[in-house]
Amino acid sequence: MPFIPHTPEDVDHMLKKLGVARIEDLFDEIPPALRIDALPESVPAQVSEQAITRLMRERARQDTPGICFLGAGAYDHFIPAAVWEIVTRGEFYSAYTPYQAEASQGTLQVIYEFQSMMTGLTGLEVSNASLYDGASALAEAILMACRIQNQKRGGSVVLVPEALHPDYRRVIETLLEPQSIGIETIPYDRKSGLLDRSWVEERLGPGGSRKSRTRSAQL
């Protein structure tokens, strides 16, 4: 956000409200030994925003980027400049669905249009909206699957890949445990990264689900 400096009159007004004479008086509680009265010589003189931006870009060009193997949304992205202009607007800044629908028709319409495009791109019947991140979306998808199967509270077990990101795993464990929904881990081959299909088929049985220990396993 842009820096908006205070006028001397603003500063004097705030100091009077706080009951101090100088800005330095606000830091009286800091022991003298911990104070820095002057910047070290290694710290360069102040420069303009334009100059520091140019300097950082020059230093960034010296970097040699490596191949990124991160997951969970942390891989390399190209973000068009228009995206930042749109998402930083107040009405779009949060993914949270406004409670006052009558006052947020624009936001809700944009969410609907965007998610409609997502279903078209992915070929899926549904696409979630207003979920903060992938972990929340995963947890909601599991709960939806259990409800669709008409499983009573405490009567479901879900199969989760062992390769699932541990942060996602912790989120679903947090949300499923109070609802007494069990979790079974699907093993995978660490060399190929592939799941054990036969293990999954054995757990699910014909038709995609089967009774197991009086509980229903679902993928």
TrEMBL record:
GO terms for molecular function: glycine dehydrogenase (decarboxylating) activity. InterPro entries: GcvPA (IPR023010), GDC-P_N (IPR049315), PyrdxlP-dep_Trfase (IPR015424), PyrdxlP-dep_Trfase_major (IPR015421). Keywords: Oxidoreductase. Residues 3-189 form the Glycine cleavage system P-protein N-terminal domain. Gene3D superfamilies: Type I PLP-dependent aspartate aminotransferase-like (Major domain). GO terms for biological process: nucleoside metabolic process. The keyword Ribonucleoprotein does not apply. Pfam families: GDC-P. PANTHER family: GLYCINE CLEAVAGE SYSTEM P-PROTEIN, GLYCINE DEHYDROGENASE (DECARBOXYLATING). This is Glycine dehydrogenase subunit 1. It comes from mine drainage metagenome.
